[in-house]
């Protein structure tokens, strides 16, 4: 039987008092404070929502039965020019994290630095393109230097809010759908090391990729990160095949859909797209 943890686009403590959230690889599960934990989360991107409505949206998700929310972190909005940072108003990520915590919800933070998110340049700052010879999403030193500068500003802000530190953050995503772009595991592992240097082992790191063979082969990066998959509701009837492909590259651990596309993007000049409830309404 497949147990699938879904993401649709206080907290308990152990007897010893320590808060913990980790992957039990041998038993294919998440463990939160000594107990098996299954999350069902909804995508809620703080930078797309007026901050005055964050609380309302989070509580609406909670009322719908979700126990977690997920959000990207948006590099190009936070650093509009090199070394100039904006964490105010709708970009006050610390305030957003606190609001999630106050609502007694878990948080899955998708840092990237490339995030896609149907956002300009996948969240990467356009000023990167002014750096001669830069090669984005690779082991290029110029690119990694810019990434390092960004992460070393962002990660210390979120570290106090990891679940093990008393906050709501249970998982951190590294890159996003990289298997659709490249196949350099050394690059993804270099990113992981940047995260780990600041955040350590106190959080679960993961990747997300499409369900095609080459995407999972190039995107899943064991052993330090949990590989997850994304697919549309219309593909649920092929769940065994999809998860079989994931298992080929990650034999153990919980199986997670990190993006279950409940909707679809509209395109300028085209008709508004309406998605039927289908399997999601079952």
Low-confidence stretches: 10-15
Tell me the helix content.
25-40%
**Which structural category fits the helices and strands?**
alpha/beta
Give the terminus-to-terminus CA distance. 19 Å
Structure explained in plain terms:
Residues 10-15 have low confidence and may be disordered. The chain is globular, with a radius of gyration of 18 Å. It is built from seven helices and eleven strands. 27% of the residues lie in helices and 20% in strands. It is α/β, with parallel strands linked by helices. An eight-stranded parallel β-barrel has the order 1-5-6-7-8-9-10-11, surrounded by five helices. A three-stranded antiparallel sheet has the order 2-3-4, with no helix packed on it.
List the helices and strands and how they pair.
Layout lengths: L3 E5 L12 E4 L4 E4 L2 E3 L2 E4 L10 H10 L4 E5 L2 H4 L14 H10 L3 E7 L28 H18 L10 E6 L10 H15 L4 E6 L3 H7 L6 E6 L7 H11 L5 E6 L22
Parallel strand pairs: 1-5, 1-11, 5-6, 6-7, 7-8, 8-9, 9-10, 10-11
Antiparallel strand pairs: 2-3, 3-4
Helix pairs in contact: 4-5
Quick take:
Helices cover 27% and strands 20% of the residues.
Short key terms for the protein model shown above:
282 residues; alpha/beta; 3-stranded antiparallel sheet; 7 helices
């Amino acid at each position: 039987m497949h147990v699938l943890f879904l993401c649709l686009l206080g907290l308990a403590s152990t007897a010893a008092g320590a808060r913990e959230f980790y992957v039990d690889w041998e038993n294919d599960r998440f463990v939160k404070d000594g107990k098996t934990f299954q999350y069902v989360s909804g995508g809620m991107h703080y930078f797309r929502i007026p901050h005055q409505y964050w609380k309302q949206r989070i509580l609406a998700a909670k009322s719908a039965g979700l126990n977690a929310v997920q959000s990207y972190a948006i590099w190009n909005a936070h650093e509009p020019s090199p070394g100039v940072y904006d964490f105010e108003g709708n970009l006050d990520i610390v305030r957003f994290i606190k609001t999630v915590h106050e609502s007694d919800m878990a948080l899955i933070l998708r840092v990237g630095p490339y995030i896609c998110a149907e956002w300009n340049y996948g969240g990467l700052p356009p000023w990167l393109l002014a750096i001669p010879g830069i090669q984005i999403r690779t082991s290029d030193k110029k690119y990694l230097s810019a990434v390092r500068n960004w992460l070393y500003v962002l990660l210390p802000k979120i570290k106090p809010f990891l679940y093990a530190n008393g906050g709501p953050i249970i998982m951190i995503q590294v890159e996003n759908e990289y298997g659709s772009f490249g196949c350099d595991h050394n690059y993804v592992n270099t990113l992981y090391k940047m995260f780990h240097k600041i955040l350590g082992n106190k959080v679960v790191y993961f990747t997300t990729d499409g369900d095609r063979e080459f995407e999972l082969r190039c995107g899943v990066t064991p052993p330090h990160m949990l590989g997850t998959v994304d697919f549309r509701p219309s593909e649920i009837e092929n769940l065994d095949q999809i998860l079989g492909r994931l298992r080929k590259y990650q034999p153990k651990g919980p199986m997670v859909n990190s993006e279950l596309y409940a909707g679809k993007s509209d395109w300028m000049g085209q008709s508004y797209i309406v998605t039927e409830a289908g399997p999601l309404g079952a």
